[in-house]
Structure formats: structure tokens, C-alpha cells
Amino acid sequence: MDSYAIQLDNFEGPLDLLLHLIKKNEMDIYDIPIAAITEQYLVTLDAMKNLNLDVAGEFLLMAATLLHIKSKMLLPKIVEEELEEDEEDPRAELVRRLLEYQKYKEVSQTLENQPQLGRDLFARAAPEPEVLEEAESGFIAVGLFDLLAALQDVLRESPEPFVHEVNMEQLSITDRINAILTLLQGQESMAFGDLFSGGIKRSEMIVTFLALLELVKLRMVRFMQNVRHGTIWIFPAVELGKVDELDVGEDSLGYS
Amino acid sequence: MDILELTPLVEALIFAADGPIKAERMAEALELPLAEILAALDALAADYAESPRGFFLQQVAGGYQLRTRPEYADYLRKLGHSRPFRFSRPALETLAIIAYRQPVTRSEIEYLRGVDSGSVLKTLLEKRLLRILGKKDVPGKPMIYGTTREFLELFGLPDLSALPTLREFSELVPDQDNDDKSGALPLLVDEEIFADDSTGESRDSFSEYD
Amino acid sequence: MDILELTPLVEALIFAADGPIKAERMAEALELPLAEILAALDALAADYAESPRGFFLQQVAGGYQLRTRPEYADYLRKLGHSRPFRFSRPALETLAIIAYRQPVTRSEIEYLRGVDSGSVLKTLLEKRLLRILGKKDVPGKPMIYGTTREFLELFGLPDLSALPTLREFSELVPDQDNDDKSGALPLLVDEEIFADDSTGESRDSFSEYD
After folding, report:
1. Which of B11, B26, B68, B175 has its CA 20 to 30 A from that of B78?
2. C100-166: CATH topology
3. CA–CA min distance B114, chain A (Å)
4. Which of these, B75, B59, B70, B72, lies nearest to B14 by C-alpha position?
5. DSSP secondary-structure letter at B67?
6. Which residues of A touch C83 (CB under 8 A)?
7. Would the CB atoms of C85 and A150 count as touching at under 8 Å?
8. C78 and chain A: CB distance < 8 Å anywhere?
């Protein structure tokens, strides 16, 4: 029973198992005795179940296929002569799959035995230093998979999903405006991005953004860039000593 | 340039490259006709054959690379050069199917293997042995897969045509034209590895390997 | 071991090492006395001196290393110039976001990535993988970005609709992404790349602010 178990564990899938049964019973793959193979297949599945092996759905699907073929073969062939062109042997598709599978199963073993880089052959690990320093030009082809994987990573790490938040805590734009002005106090400028870093919540981002827009509208800050597409810098546009006296109450901003 | 001068220079270029290097690229860098580079490559290969070195010249992934001789593998592994990646049987089977039948969709692979192949595909993609070539222009627009340059490099193949030949287990039953009716895949039964008329446009993506 | 056998083996060990390798370490790996290794190293050096190769044996940092001959430096540098550009992770992330969510503003990208993306955007614009589609008609008139023809060429895509979806990607390993269905990946869960019905609402509300 033990050796049986090991064997069962080794089957890659239903086709693998079928091939094994065909070989073991020395059946002709082009003329599979469908009743016999079906029976053997079902017995094996039972054995797998008895051994508490997880019989995957694929194995059961194949059992159904075998039974279906068997029933088709049992049907009397009416007017055999006339229909012979169209009527395919019910086993034909299965035979094709088996032959095809056998081919790849075999060649995968050949591939495995092929000398592999990193296992049997080794290339130089360290390229010449003088080559490494050089400027980069073209592109190394990156697969679409890398693009997808990168996107997935971003979305996974994204602070919060893009879903509508109903129970959002009420954040005051005024408070945020004051906080930004406080941050600006004592420094010449700050990077736009700094206000949004540190994994802050989406709702906070929006409030921060609105606060910045208000500050620009009120001409209290200016946005500057050194270069196109460069970092956006925020400069205070008023004397910060006067900030406290400015009326930036909620009502005057039109938000509530 | 004299071939006696050129040969060690070509050897240096291959030695210093961080992967297989194409003869064309060397010709360009040295501003020499391709024929001279090829002659130097021949001389180099002959030289290695005559006085065995620790490595040999392998034609791989459309280029040339120096690789250690396989009989030294044990010692090199001892020095910590082994790659911890070992193929499982499902991974090898899947890789083989894709290598020979590319461009191929996941459902075609699973039809052939008879089992779900999603996680194997993902692993092979992560190992960069497979890549997504795009989408097949059929309902559902499934992704189509193919092998990569890294695949060729791993198995030391100059190009896809150098894959070991598939052993044909038979000439199939002669009349096979009606298999499409059943919705089954058109199975590949002939010598031509990439014959798959439904996806002709993605064949272009292989040209980068040639 | 015969010195004639040992010499190429020592050459292979030095060749495959990822830096200078000490004679002692080779002796240990080969389980041979140090003297034999040193003799092989001498033989190797003599061999290189006799029939000049592209590289020579240099004793460096207490170990041995193969290095290309200095007179080839110019050619090697020339080859270095065509070294292809490797995507950094930030670049790939940014490109992915733009490819899938275009037209998109910088602040949307930075929201998703959680970090300033100005310099990455600049690089990608310079490499002509991105282009500015225009300005968004919202306060501040932020620039909106999209991918270029060069982007499609690089990834071998006929058009943007050939980009595989995240759902297809997630389906490769279904059970692993169980929790993602609930929220982590709401952006691209359906066939249509740019329409995301589960989040359409919030996207609108977001874009009206930036």
C-alpha cells in the first residue's frame, strides 16, 4: 500500500495517471480499451480517496470524460457507412491529448537534463568595472509581467483604496491652512510633496490640497519650480507675522 | 585588424559583457566588418578546443558567452555558486509546453496538462523565464505567454529553434481537420514548432531573439 | 590532481568568482594542498603570458582575479555606452500607474505611490515613454500624463487595450488574492482597463479636487 501511495502522489494530473495506466497495462494508446481503462482509473481514484489524498477536481472531471466516452462507444452505430466521414471515434480527442501530453512530459525531462546556467554552467558574475560606470542608453526589455507586478505592488501599498468613504472624520480646512502656515514659519520654503508624505490618509490629502488652493487664492503662498516637472516648492507670500491676523474662517472660504 | 590581434580583443569583449553579446554588437564597437568578428570567434572556439580552458564559448540567446565547463559544476557549487532554483515537474512541463507552442494561452496550457497551471505560471513569470506577449484576439482576450531571453540563457540555447526535438509518438489518425468543431484546441502535430495561424501577429515578438 | 587538469579548473574557479578569490579558498573547495593551487596559478599565469588572451591574471586584494587587458579599455567603454537602461522600481511603478490609469496627473500618481515622483516622471519623459497630454481643467491646471508610442513598442503591444488586466494577473493564483478582492485592488478588477465600476464614484470625487 505504501508504494502505491507514493506513486499516486506523483501523478501530475489525470493525463499523467492515464498514461501511467496505459503503460502499466500495455494498452495500445491508439485503441484504448475504454471500459478497462475507465475501471482502472476509477479504482485508482478510490485508492487515492482511501489514502486521504486530495483528489483534485481535474481527476474527477477526467473520470466523467471517460464515462462519457464509454457510454458513447456503447451506443449502436446507426447507418455506420453513411456517417463515417463525420463521426469521429469518441476516443480521438483523448488520444490526441495523451499523445501531446506525453510529448511535453518527455521533453521536459530532456530540458531538465540539459546543462543549466547556474546549476551546471557558470558565467562570470562580475562585469568589468569600467563597463559598469557607463551612461545608459536604450532599454532592457521589461516584460509586461513586471509592469503588472509593479502596479499591483503600488496598489497593495497604497495608503488607502479608492473607495468612497462615508464616515469621514470632519477635517477643517482652516485648521489645515493654519498648520501649513505654521510649518512654513521659520523656513524659506517647503516641498509640495512633503505635505503629502508619511502615509497620510486620503481625506487628509484632500483637505491639505484644498487648503493649499485656498492659500494660493488668498495669495498667502506661492508655488515655484526650478525646472519643469521638478519639485514644486511652496513659498510664503506674506509676512508670516501677520498670518495670525488674517481671517481664514470657514465661512469666508465657502466650505463648511 | 590582424586576426591574431583581434581574437584576444574579442575574447575580452565577451569576457567583460554582462550577458551573451551579439557578434553584430562587437562589430559595431570595433568598427569592423562582421565577417572579421565571426572569424575571430571561430579562432577563439578552436583555441579553446585545442588547449582546454576552464570555460568554453557558448552560443546562447543570439549571442556569445563564456561559461565554465559542466564537469566543474560540483566544485563551483561548493564555492557557493549555486542558484537555489530547482524546477518542479509541473514547472518544467509548463515551461516545455510554452517553449514549444508559444504564443500560448493559459487555457491551452491547462488543456494540455489537464490541471490548473496558474501558480506555476506566476512562478515562472517571477523567475523571468516567461513573459506576457500580449492578449489573444479571441473572446475574453486571454493573455498569451512566451519564453524569455533568460529562458534561452538558462538552458544555453542560441535560439528557440535549438530546442530539443519533440519525439513524435505517432502520425496521428489521418483525418484531423474536424477537431476544431468540438472546440478543442488545434493540437500541434507537425514538425513546425510555431505554426499557429491564429496568433500570427505575435510571432514578431520572437524576432528579437534571432 | 595532475597540474594539467588542475590548471583549467583553477581558471574556472577564478572566472566564476564574483570578486578576487584567495588561493586558500580554492584549496579548501578542491580539498587540495595550497601548494598545488599555487603551482596551478603559476602555470596559468605562464600560459597567459605565452599566448596572450583578452584578460590576464591579477593578484588583487589578497586574491586572484581575471581582468581584461588595459589596452582594450577604449573598446570596452564603447560597448558600455550602449548598455541598456534598466528600469528602477520607482520608474516601473510610475510607468505602470500611468499606463493603466492615463490620463493621470502627478498628484494622482503620487497619491498612489505615496512618494514624490517628480524626478521619475522627468526621466520617463526624457526617455520618451511618457508624454504630457495637456492640462486638466481643474483648479491649478495640473498637467496630465499618458504613455507614448515608444512605450507600446518597448513592451511589444499593438495598443493600450492589449495591456493585461490586474484581474487576469490575480487569477493566476486565486486563493492568494482573496482579501484583495475586498479592497486592496479595486482599481482594475474588471476586463475593461480604464473603467473601474467599483471605484468610479470615488475617482470622480478625487479628480474634482486636484
Report:
1. B11
2. Arc Repressor Mutant, subunit A (1.10.10)
3. 6
4. B59
5. E
6. 131, 134-137
7. no
8. no
How far A8 CA sits from the closest chain C CA (Å)?
24
For chain B, which residues make up each domain, given as ranges? Answer: 3-74, 100-166
B11, B29, B68 member nearest C79 (Cβ): B29
Using 70 as the pLDDT threshold, list the residues of chain A that sit under it.
Answer: 1-9, 52-54, 77-87, 125-142, 157-172, 186, 198-200, 227-230, 238-256
pLDDT in tens, A166-207: 434 455 677 777 778 777 776 777 877 777 776 667 777 777
For the stretch A84-112, pLDDT in tens is 556 678 888 999 999 999 999 999 998 88
For B163-176, the pLDDT digits (tens) are 998 887 654 443 34
Other C-beta atoms closer than 10 Å to the C-beta of A69 total 21
Q: Give the mean model confidence (pLDDT) for residues B150-175.
A: 78
pTM for the complete prediction? 0.67
Looking at the complex, report in whole angstroms how far the Cα of residue B59 sits from the nearest Cα belonging to chain C.
18
CA of B87 to nearest chain C CA: how many angstroms apart? 18
**Best A119, A122, A151, A217 residue to mutate vs chain C (most C CBs within 10 Å):** A151
CB contact under 8 A, C25 and B55: no
CB pairs under 8 A between B and C: 112
Any C CB within 8 A of A140 CB: yes
> Predicted ipTM?
0.70
In CATH, what number does C3-74 get? Answer: 1.10.10.10
The domains found in chain A, sorted by start residue, are 1-121 (no CATH), 124-162+169-256 (1.10.10)
